[in-house]
Amino acid sequence: MEGIVYLYNEIKRVQNNSFPMKILVCISHVPDTTSKINFTDNNTKFDQNGVQYVINPNDEFGLTRALWFKEQQGASVHVITVGDAQCEPTLRKALAIGADEAIRVAVPATDGLVVAKALAQIVSEDDYDLIIAGRESLDYNGGMVPGMLAQLTGFAFVNTCIKLDIDHGKALAVREIDGGKETIEVALPLVIGGQKGLVEESDLRIPNMRGIMQARSKPLHVKELTPVASTATTLSYEKPAPKEAVTLVSGVDELIDLLHKEAKVL
Amino acid sequence: MSVLVYAESDQGIIKKIAQELISYGRALADQLGTTLYVAVMADVGTQNLAQYGAQQIVHIEHEALQSFSADAFAQAIAQSAKSVEAEVVLVSSSANSRYLAPMLAVGLDAAYVPNCTQLPLSTSPFQVTHSVYTNKAEATTEMTSAVKLIGLAKNAFGVSHFEGTAQTTSLTPDLNPSKCHVSATDRATDKVMIADAEIVVSAGRGLKGPENWHLIEDLAEVLGAATACSKPVSDLGWRPHSEHVGQTGKPVASNLYIAIGISGAIQHLAGINSSKVKVVINTDPEAPFFKAADYGIVGDAFDVVPELIEKLKQFKTLNA
To answer: Which domain holds residue B25?
Structure first.
């Protein structure tokens, strides 16, 4: 059945080049970048006390680019996250800045492979042309879900993407590499691991009152799945030991001497 | 059972992070009482790999692997790992390895833990420590998949030296064609890359404008360093985004990080705090960077930096 659905979508795509894209944006619900990181329950759980949650910044650049495709090319934009009901305000924010529908997969996000497999199942039930996720989330820094999702769904994959244009089912993506960038031509369906550059900081949107009101009536689907067993279980966390106080030096000679003889880095 | 390292190369030359990864792999293979296999692409000379700890070499030969392609490389490495029945597969934290690793993990049905900072705490059960929350914390994670994929954090282990030789076997993988076609590459070859740099010289709004960046470039040149900048500087367009280091920019794990006119916002510090030695130069003694730095000078960059450049030139001449 899955094969037939796939074939149908492929035919539809070929027959109608200008068929509006269906985009899925994967969102992580993460602590704000200024959050103090602490742990509770004998250092086994992240301390949520006083922590503001936001759309993961790398995902927000991708979401904003997806909204550009919606406004300029008539794409539809769904957002998705894997996690418990606490993530819903973050999905509502994505709806408030312009996404059409939201999906929450009610599976504990225990590790990257579990999340990617849950997402792949949802993707297999629909006909997305483009999936945009952030290059990495600011909490676990795994940077693995987009690539795993691509491999599981058979979509093409471009990581650390800083520019994305799509015309008639073909994407032109620019990827940041160590020391430069490369341009990639690739056909849809495609998964993007995105970051700043997809849009600029100044393009990011703040929800307005009208958007917030509209978001309340937009669909937020909750999907129940049986999660696969986790094979990477985090047992505990530790914060680094407090740093020793800075050595203030009076001048350049002393600095060079210390870097040479004490720190041994020159 | 064995350990397999994917040792990446650039134009046939093994990268420094790959040397480090081979040494880490050897220590892990010794810990497990097994053999270290090192997978390299066909253009890499194999004679020097034993000195970093390689015991067996898998030479991957296929014309589709002449230039980097994440999906093709992931298939080739997965097949190498299967051919030597690897229980643990190791990759680095370069942009290319971070790109291919998740696809490799699915290909091997392996749990994947990147940013590992040391050897596993224990191999039975298999427990690793890795940095999370952008270096603000470390986590201990237990991996229970049959094959485990580990990413080593940058500058976390160091290169060890070994005597002996390694045997080479060739492998021609069976590859599906890559879905991506690289149509252009734009890479500055004359500049030190932030990712590889031993020393990074970074500046913030204290420099007052892009026209003053010659100070930073001159200092970087004397030190053989990469140049970087704070987020406000890249947002203002004074410097390209590719130089932005911090939580939403690039991570830095150099031996020496020199911050000039950067106040030290929490997001900036998160991105650079796995650097070994941090130096701050700032006019404001209350700047938060002084709490994160090892050495500091309270002073004006426009006075300190030119003097630093001159004195470093003298130092280099004396110590050459």
So the answer is: 2-171
CA angle at residue B304 from B302 to B309, to 5 degrees? Answer: 100
Establish if B191 belongs to a structural domain. no
Dist. CA B265–CA B232, nearest whole Å: 10
- Scanning chain B, the segments in alpha helix (DSSP H) are 16-32, 70-83, 95-108, 214-223, 231-235, 266-272, 289-292, 301-319
Taking the CA of residue B141 and the nearest CA in chain A, the distance in Å comes to: 4
Please indicate if any CB of chain A lies within 8 Å of the CB of B124: no
For residue range B86-112, what is the model confidence (pLDDT) as tens digits? 999 999 999 999 999 999 999 999 999
Q: How many CA atoms lie within 13 A of A15 on its CB side?
A: 6
Taking the CA atoms of chain A, what radius of gyration do you get in angstroms?
Answer: 21
Q: Which two structure tokens, joined as six digits, stand for B173?
A: 């993988």
Joined together, the tokens standing for residue B231 give 């987020």
Q: What is the ipTM of this complex?
A: 0.93
B162 and B219 in a common domain: no
pLDDT in tens, B25-69: 999 999 999 999 999 999 998 888 999 999 999 999 999 999 999
CATH numbers and ranges of domains, chain A: 2-261 (3.40.50.620)
Residue B248 located in a structural domain: yes
- Cβ <8 Å between A147 and B181: no
Classify residue B147: in a domain, yes or no: yes
* A144/B112 touch (CB, cutoff 8 Å), yes or no: yes
Contact B132, A141 (CB under 8 A): yes
Interface membership of A232 toward B (CB under 8 Å): yes
3-state secondary structure of B179: coil
* Domain assignment present for B185: no
Regarding whether B118 and B42 lie in a shared domain, the answer is: yes
CATH number for the domain harbouring residue B110: 3.40.50.620
Best mutation site among B130, B279, B308 for testing chain A: the one with the most A CBs within 10 Å?
Answer: B279
The answer to whether residues B290 and B238 belong to one domain is yes
Digit-coded pLDDT (tens) for A17-59: 457 999 999 999 999 988 999 999 999 999 999 999 999 999 9
